[in-house]
Amino acid sequence: MGAMRLGNYDPKIEYRQLTIAELEQLSGEGIDVKPEEIRVLTDGTLAYKDSRILVHIRDVYEYHQRRMIQNDLPRFHIAHCSTLEQMKQHNRFDRYVVATRDDGLFKIHRMKNNRIIKRDFEKLNVCQNCLNYLSFDGFGNTLSQQQKLQIVVNFSIKRFFEIFPKSLMLDKPEYRDDSAPLNAYPSKWDSISRQAKAKVNWTCKKCGVNMSNKQYRHFLHVHHKDGLK
Q1: Where are the beta strands (DSSP E) in 50-161?
Q2: Same domain (yes/no): 138, 72
Q3: Residue 67's pLDDT is what?
Q4: Are 156 and 110 contained in the same domain?
């Protein structure tokens, strides 16, 4: 390629795992995180630790009466769109919180005179710049305003997470350390293993040797397909 010298390359990728408490908070009122903790994935979507996320502004100031109208509330974001890029450039990105709630409701603090006057979960619309960035549902600048609004109205967070799964671990274990069943032999294992051997007429499935003679039966063992006893 004509490179004169090698650059720096670090193949190490760290996906810090979310705790149970963080998972519950993400799917509820969201988490207030540092801007540098939010990563932009290769597909343009956003991630926090080992989860794909949504971001939105939680603390909304009531500068004028129009703010009380739902449509004037901030939009939530599903991708690293031009709006988020501008917020970063103007050092305003730390206003955002992250969430994975998929019912379209987001925790909103309505602020006035530097204090919270109302806390509630409110319906927010998806950012059109995000839709355009991902070309989600065919969204694009060439569409009419009516067509764009229709895509916004029909947008489903659940369907978004079906296309862009929350979990970033492709082979994620089914259980966590506090929920996994103990990997131990069941109390009736002797009976279970004896029935399994009898079912195949005491014949080894690997080498085909028959050990039905009682003096040889103890050489035949039952192994687990997946290591789970």
Answers
A1: 51-57, 59-61, 96-99, 105-112, 115-123
A2: yes
A3: 46
A4: yes
